[in-house]
Every structure is written in structure tokens, then in C-alpha cells.
Amino acid sequence: MTSIPPSIAAGIAQGQQNVALSSIKQSAEADKQFANVIEETAKEAQTVAASSGRGQNLDILV
To answer: How far apart are the C-alpha atoms of 32 and 28, rounded to whole Å?
Structure first.
């Protein structure tokens, strides 16, 4: 059985780590975008309810 030199193994490990970190970052950015959409939707719903005069006695917990 032949083993690879430590410098090559370290380079492979570094590449795998970079891919994993990139994936985590993309997931966090997608989560943040989703949260922003939800927040804006909630704000718009509150604005519509307040401007229409309807539903003002309704408490909506977000």
C-alpha cells in the first residue's frame, strides 16, 4: 500500500474544508434572504391592515 506525501494530503484536506465552508456560507445567506422575505411580508401585511381600517382589533403574533 502506497501512502501519499503529507503535503498532498494537507492540500486535499484544505480543499475539502474550503468546499464545506463555502456550502455553509451559501446556506446561511439563503436563510438570511428567506428571513428578509418573511419580515417584509409581515410588514406589508401590517401596513395593509392598518391602512384599510380592517383587522385592527386582531392581534397577530409573528
So the answer is: 6
